[in-house]
């Protein structure tokens, strides 16, 4: 229970889903966690779960789609703990975002330039802003681990959600490029590529799994994954156990892409 003992982990998208699961599990494994999200109430719930379990951390409400938001998150982490050993880029939006932002999960023809930029800013620019600020801190410290949360949609063709798939593909190749550029500094960059995960992003689709035939057509395991299962993948990549793992994309999808 100490795979991240004494490490400082900065986790984005920490209010819900995979980011929140990372925050709780990393804290149980000994990390001091800093959770970042746009919604303070979600962050407060996540931090309460951490502290109730005996962990240590802080939260920062910030919009990471902007350079200013990323700066706020990094400065707060350094002020609290003095360094950043692990960065998990889990901030992002998915299909549920379209409920209040129509047109953001459509195909190219039906996506406005404004919607394109909006989703890219949240799902891809946020990772860029965070890496740009965190990598120099890791260089000063002699190393670190970056874990990006992408999606199997980053290497699949889909009939819709083209901005989302483009952003996830961009994050996959950003991960590989970070590996090539910064391995000499002791910085590892890896990613997980989740399949269909039971989070708020896709909750309107979850009833599909109630039909056994439909569920099996989605994934051989016939069920969605859990945020905790994704977080354990992030934990491995963040930990010293993955010391020779660099530039890897860990697919965690119940076998969905094995059929391709």
Automatic annotation (TrEMBL):
Gene3D superfamilies referenced in this protein's UniProt entry, alphabetically: NAD(P)-binding Rossmann-like Domain
Superkingdom assignment: Bacteria
CDD domains the UniProt entry points to: SDR_c
A UniProt-annotated Pfam family: adh_short_C2
InterPro entries, per the entry: NAD(P)-bd_dom_sf, Sc_DH/Rdtase_CS, SDR_fam
Family under the similarity heading: Belongs to the short-chain dehydrogenases/reductases (SDR) family.
Protein name as it appears in the record: Short-chain dehydrogenase
Naturally occurring in which organism (per UniProt): Pseudooceanicola atlanticus
